[in-house]
Amino acid sequence: xxxxxxxxxxxxxxxxxxxxxxxxxxxxxxxxxxxxxxxxxxxxxxxxxxxxxxxxxxxxxxxxxxxxxxxxxxxxxxxxxxxxxxxxxxxxxxxxxxxxxxxxxxxxxxxxxxxxxxxxxxxxxxxxxxxxxxxxxxxxxxxxxxxxxxxxxxxxxxxxxxxxxxxxxxxxxxxxxxxxxxxxxxxxxxxxxxxxxxxxxxxxxxxxxxxxxxxxxxxxxxxxxxxxxxxxxxxxxxxxx
Length: 241
Hints:
By secondary structure, this protein is α/β, with parallel strands linked by helices. It has a four-stranded mixed beta sheet. It has a four-stranded mixed beta sheet with strand order 5-6-8-7, with helices on one face. A three-stranded mixed beta sheet has the order 9-11-10, with helices on one face. It has helices spanning 46-55, 57-67, 121-147, 149-153, 191-203, 212-221, 225-230, and strands at residues 2-8, 13-21, 27-30, 36-41, 85-88, 91-99, 103-107, 110-115, 160-164, 171-174, 179-183. Helix content is 34%, strand content 27%. It has two domains: 2-67, no CATH class; 85-235, Zincin-like (2-Layer Sandwich). A hairpin with a 4-residue loop joins strand 10 (171-174) and strand 11 (179-183).
């Protein structure tokens, strides 16, 4: 028997699917996209299932952060060639590849790539990847520097910035090493969404969990963080070179 249940985890309310079945132990899972599934023995009450979920709030919130907005793509990758659409800071650009001196630049709604061999798709991708990394570092660094001062005042140390293409999260904070890693795909998001992910990771310099105190810190400087986080769902299926 299955039914939908809703519980308050303090910083957010979540809905999960409760399934009573012939099992001996409780089994809690979170699927990519953020669907929460809990299987319990027949004898366990729904109220007890709710209490169990609440007891796992810290793990559940961490896992949701990783999985509910995970970039997903269906079908084979689209070649990086003339005519494809590229999402950059929330705006769609049409990729235009032409023969000429090596260069990559944006102009209105076009992302131009000029190469001696424009038909060489791996070469196009490499040129775009170099351009993408430069933009990532410029945009992410600007967001970090703009939002960092109040956290420095609270005792945070200035972190180093690393770029990676990640499949399970938008960013991570290695607070012990003083390093923040951001997903290269984040450059596809609108600037206000980039700012949310950057601030989220910066706040981990002071709070190393996803407790109510952590989210209170985020909300102190970004009251609309929930709306900005929800916008990450729009990036499902997006790609970066």
